[in-house]
Design brief:
This is AlpA family transcriptional regulator. This protein is 50% helix and 16% strand. It is of the alpha+beta class. Strand 2 and strand 3 form a beta hairpin.
Length: 70
């Protein structure tokens, strides 16, 4: 059985990538970053597996793999 994925806050994502919040949202707007899950009006989280995949393959490759899903 596979392990359930954890949801990460923007601060946790920033820590894993070493990016600023603005850089995360800039890449997201360019389609090079996973969209977050909206939990409430002011709360979003990213799937840990999505962020790990992005780290592993890079933003350009992630965009190419997910173009149809955007």
């Amino acid at each position: 059985m596979s392990e359930a994925s954890q949801l990460l806050t923007v601060k946790e994502v920033q820590s894993r990538l070493g990016w600023s919040r603005a850089t995360i949202y800039r890449h997201m707007s360019a389609g090079q970053f996973p969209k977050p899950h909206r939990l409430s009006a002011g709360s979003v989280r990213w799937d840990q597996h999505d962020i790990e995949e992005l780290i592993r393959i890079g933003t350009d490759a992630w965009r190419k793999q997910h173009e149809g899903a955007l």
